[in-house]
Amino acid sequence: MGKKEDFIELITEGYTSKGESITLGGAILDGEALGDAHVKIPLKTLNRHGLIAGATGTGKTKTIQVLSEQLSPFGIPVLMMDIKGDFSGIAKEGEEKSFITDRHAKINLPYHTAKFPVELLTLSEQNGVRLRATVSEFGPVLFSRILDLNDTQSGVVSVIFKYCDDNKMPLLDLKDIKKVINYITEEGKEEITKSYGRISTSTTGIILRKIIELEQQGAELFFGEMSFDIDDLMRIDENGKGYINILRLTDIQDKPKLFSTFMLSMLAEIYQQMPEKGDSDQPELVIFIDEAHLIFNEASKALLEQIETIVKLIRSKGVGIYFVTQNPMDVPSGVLAQLGLKIQHALRAFTAKDRKSINQTADNYPTSDYYNTSEVLTSLGIGEALVTALNEKGIPTPLVATMMRAPMSRMDILTESEIQEINSKSKLVKKYSELIDRESAYEMLNKKITIIEEEAAQEEKEKQEEKTTKTITTQSKKDNSAMGKSVIKVLTSATFIRGVFGILSKILKK
């Protein structure tokens, strides 16, 4: 048996699945695409997370499109965090062109066009389903980690949440928590000190500045009601296809804190709400996080630890997370170690630093008797990738260079009119379009402060009245005393005068 036959047997055995699977494409050996060695990934292992990496323009977005297209018909919903804005075409049928026909002929896979059910989500003022969450839903621990607070500052945040819980004051948006901070450092300082201990104004000042920094990245649009219901990510259309939820993030590329805030809160919410699935035959939800380096570059140590913990635990809920970035080195080693499927598109070696990075990347993949991994990484064409996954037993599959199949849907973005069409038919857009601003901590504290001010004003008024009364009484006493003295003086003078005149009368009579 020759090298080619051995290789085909290795790939066929390594990527054969007894259960349902998705097909990425055909194997490549010595530059030749092999039509009888298909690369298949078992649905059963897709909750073991993954990495899709490669230089700009090498086909990462099309790979996500191919994966999403094959998950949807199995009733598996997808959440795609689309920062570049080039994924929305999945809602419309593609067009079979000559290069697609040639590609599929080489890998011996049929091709047909198709479109898929899509919801367009937004964190900002773009058109689509508005995503929001309340500050209370974040809780003190997650909110502190997002703000990158130290232990002392986090303790104060916990006191703030406890005070609001004890007084039944909902924390819905950022103006609520800012109002509470202002209150406990001014009007309510004595109240807080008495019940919860003394809080340093310098600490509350730092927390307030951190909140303002988050606010400046557009977080005030995200915090509020109504909160997004995680169940709305799990929808299936009338044909049994899972919805592909595209979160459009094109206008927050320069706001990594808001991006990481949303991502972590969403993962935490999914983990808390979804039931344990154990060893299921397919995932309940698959999440693709595009431009993942934006999260990791800006994340604090505490935030990275939180992400790593959630990635470890969330797969038991049937959720697969796939990080999409240019270089695997963008992903922390603790997270990278949790990723079962790795799809590595081409990397470019323009500098000595690039070549070193490529060698480090090669070390993250299984060794192969058929490839020099470092060389293959720089010679892959557009739409080609090195792939390694987990088989149904959780064992890593052989490393294989793969010619990826082409997307069935449109490989371009939607027009504005097409976006409007999708949104106009969306039940979720109508559901989440209304901004609810019910009574919360902000309004309740404003009322409380008004009452305090009115009581203080009344107390001051009463003090002034009492002071005035005392002044009048004192003056009256003084006046009465003076009058008494005058009367006595008059009477004394009269008596004296009468006495004098009496004596003079007696003298004259003599």
What features would you highlight for this structure?
single chain, 510 residues, 48% helix, Helicase HerA-like C-terminal domain-containing protein, P-loop_NTPase, T4SS_component
Structural commentary:
Helix content is 48%, strand content 13%. The model is unreliable at 490-501 (pLDDT under 50). The protein has helices at 3-14, 60-71, 98-106, 135-147, 151-166, 174-185, 189-196, 201-216, 256-273, 293-298, 301-314, 333-336, 352-362, 373-379, 416-425, 427-432, 441-509, and strands at 21-29, 32-42, 50-53, 78-82, 118-122, 129-130, 244-248, 285-289, 319-325, 341-344, 384-388, 400-404. Strands 2-1-12-11-10-3-9-8-4-7-5-6 form a 12-stranded mixed sheet. β1 and β2 form a beta hairpin. The protein has 17 helices and 12 strands. It is elongated. The longest helix is centred in the C-terminal third of the chain and has 69 residues, at 441-509. The protein has 2 domains: 3-131 and 228-414, no CATH class; 135-221. α5 crosses α8 and α9 (256-273) packs parallel to α11 (301-314). The termini are far apart. With 510 residues, the chain is of the alpha/beta class. Residues 35-483 form the Helicase HerA-like C-terminal domain. Residues 458-469 have a biased composition (Basic and acidic residues).
